[in-house]
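Your task:
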Amino acid sequence: MACFVESIVVASVLSVAKKSIAKQEETQKNMQENSHKISWSRKLGWLVNMLWGGVFLLCIEHIWHGEIVAYPPFLTAMSSPEHTQAMIYEILTIGSAQVALIVAIWTIMVVCADKMYANLASKTQIA
């Protein structure tokens, strides 16, 4: 119904946070000459891209199944109070699970990327 709504909210908040963090990192980068690690804003960008990608795919899927329409109320689940209640329950359960899974996958990805980058950096220092 509308499980993607929570991902939209999280992705929007993180997009704003990413821009703010990127500005702070740029200021700090000007102070420090060489920073040899993956920036936090870049890692956060990966998460934001994963969330927006999921939102896009879920929107297409919901449009395909007729759950999103081009006329008000846009979400067919908002046509009656009973359906709206079920939609809110789905947002809070399924939407939260989707965001949690994406964040878990992103966390594993960041840990692996940091280890790979550290390994590469140690090999280049030896050579």
In short: The two ends are 55 Å apart (CA to CA). The chain has a mean pLDDT of 91. Helices lie at 4-31, 40-64, 81-126.
